[in-house]
Specification:
427 residues; alpha+beta; Beta-Lactamase; Arc Repressor Mutant, subunit A; five-stranded antiparallel β-sheet; four-stranded mixed β-sheet; 17 helices; 11 strands; 49% helix; 12% strand; globular; GAF; GAF-like_dom_sf; GAF domain-containing protein
């Protein structure tokens, strides 16, 4: 198949394909192997959805005034006229629906053919309902959000049986300034949507929405961005300029970003050098050089602080976690904060960011998120993470033997380390 995100190959018989995938779905639910070929994106989604009841009813999170307030404040509200212009008429004429959801799979708007709307209400495909994979299993908007890619889901590819009479195509939409996932746009209807045109249509609509948002909220020319995750030296982007900072300046900038209220010279010295190595003259010299690198207008003193808002990648991770967007935080996390730094303040902040992300991933027990965490430098040797991943993956999942083996290997290494430590203490 030229495009793995398309549901049907050219010339395929839809009825035959529905039967083949339906049989594979039933075999999957029974824990049996199936000879039927199922797209990788669908099979992986089934694995993520395996804990869900296949007869589940999708929950409704928001209704009435709470829903109105929430979607009125959502960034995609500004793009609604464009969605209606590009998809609204087609949905009416083609007997299907246009839907827009947020980054958590919560439907914001569902519009289209009146008869199709009534049928969709029976499965809670309504504004305010949660159609992420955790609550609705495999479906186009939920899966598009999970894999961050446009996708088509056809009939029996849906995990929850009441949804298997439908076919849908969806594409994710990102904030053009930060890259943050905002939601997805979807068209839902009958089997006639299983064609390349429907997938191309939602892809084009998502790109048009991002272009609209970029034009409506252009980046400020003096915007300041700091990248410090997964690298020993931070990079500063000041407008169109890119400045790679040295180790000490990277540490100082990160410490100032972590304390927007400001720090005294003594506090910065303790965070940078530790209790027994205070060097006021050296610190003032480093701050003077940092001020020259940043510009006089950016760094203030008494206390030392940044005068204007500066966006930093490690703060983005924490903000996403605070909003409950664990998947988004993982996507924004390339590795530990300034991993080569031994400055006490940076080390504390690094442990805090990694600890918050780790705790959120372990609490969610989501197989894909656990796999993403154990693939990072911070999670590669995390015994609890690998054990949780082994538990989260269903029997027969391709990744499960690797997770089980890695968990056993780490457990053995930890037991050996503990035994060696006890022997040393005994001597």
């Amino acid at each position: 198949m030229a495009d793995p995100w398309l549901a049907l190959e050219f010339g395929a018989d839809p009825a035959e394909r529905i039967a083949q995938v339906g049989a594979a779905h039933e075999a999957f639910l029974a824990g049996e192997a199936s000879g039927a070929r199922v797209r990788d994106v669908v099979r992986r989604s089934w694995e993520r959805s395996a804990r869900l009841d296949p007869e589940a009813t999708v929950p409704v999170d928001l209704t009435d005034g709470a829903l109105e307030s929430y979607r009125a404040a959502h960034p995609l509200a500004r793009v609604l006229p464009l969605f209606r212009d590009l998809l609204g008429g087609i949905a009416q004429d083609g007997a299907h629906l246009m839907a827009v959801c947020d980054a958590y799979g919560r439907l914001l708007w569902v519009e289209g053919h009146a008869g199709v709307l009534r049928h969709a209400e029976r499965m809670n495909f309504v504004p305010g309902a949660r159609w992420d994979e955790t609550h609705a299993g495999t479906n186009a908007p939920g899966t598009a959000l999970a894999v961050d890619h446009s996708v088509q889901i056809f009939a029996t590819e849906h995990f929850v049986r009441p949804v298997q009479r439908w076919t849908c195509a969806a594409a994710p939409i990102h904030d053009p300034a930060s890259g943050r996932l905002l939601g997805a746009v979807d068209i839902t209807g009958g089997d006639h949507l299983a064609n390349p045109q429907s997938l191309a249509l939602v892809r084009a609509t998502a790109r048009a929405a991002e272009a609209f948002l970029a034009q409506a909220t252009p980046a400020a020319p003096d915007a300041v961005h700091v990248t410090a995750l997964g690298r020993d030296e931070a990079e500063l982007r000041l407008g169109t300029r890119r400045i790679r900072l040295g180790r000490r300046h990277s540490e100082l900038l990160v410490l100032l970003l972590d304390h927007p209220e400001g720090r005294t010279g003594e506090q910065l010295g303790l965070d940078l050098y530790g209790d027994d190595r205070l060097h006021p003259v050296t610190l003032r010299a480093e701050l003077s050089r940092l001020r020259r690198a940043l510009g006089e207008e950016l760094l203030d003193s008494r206390p030392y602080r940044l005068r204007m808002g500066v966006r930093a990648d490690f703060r983005t991770v924490v903000e996403l976690l605070e909003r409950g967007d664990v998947a988004g935080a993982l996507r924004a996390y390339p590795g530990p904060l300034l991993p080569g730094s031994d400055a006490p303040g940076v080390a504390r902040l690094r442990r805090r960011v990694d600890g918050q992300l780790r705790a959120a991933v372990l609490a969610g027990a989501d197989a894909d998120q656990l796999a993403a965490w154990t693939a990072t430098a911070a999670g590669a040797d995390d015994l609890a993470g690998w054990q949780a991943l082994a538990r989260a993956l269903p029997p027969g999942a391709p990744r499960r033997p690797l997770a089980v083996a890695r968990a056993r290997q780490l457990a053995g290494e930890y037991d050996l380390t503990r035994a060696t430590s006890l022997q040393r203490r005994g001597h």
